[in-house]
Automatic annotation (TrEMBL):
It comes from Deinococcus gobiensis (strain DSM 21396 / JCM 16679 / CGMCC 1.7299 / I-0). GO terms for biological process: cellular detoxification of fluoride. Fluoride-specific ion channel. Important for reducing fluoride concentration in the cell, thus reducing its toxicity. It catalyses: fluoride(in) = fluoride(out). This is Fluoride-specific ion channel FluC.
Amino acid sequence: MLAALPLTTRTGLPLAVLGINVLGSFLLGLTLALVGRGVWPEAARVAFGTGVLGAFTTFSTFSTEIDGLLGRGWAGWALAYAVGSVALGLGAATLGRLLGARL
C-alpha cells in the first residue's frame, strides 16, 4: 500500500519513506515480542526481523531524504523529519511490543 505512494509529497516532504519505516518499526516490535514470548521461534527474528523488515525499511533512503531537504535549504524540515522519524519509529516499536505481549 505505501509503496504505491510517491516518495515525496508535492511539497517535497518524504512521507512515504517515513510511513514505511514507522510500519517496519511496529512490525519489528511485534516480532520481538512474539519471539520473546515463545510464540514464534528465534529463527523468525532473524528471518523476518532482519531479513524481511531489513529489506522493507531503509536507513539509506532516510539519510538521502534528509540530505535532499538540507540541499534545498530546509534545515528545519530536515531536523523535524529526522527527530520525528526516530520518535515515531520508537513509538511504533513500543506499540508493536505491547500488542505482541497481549497476543
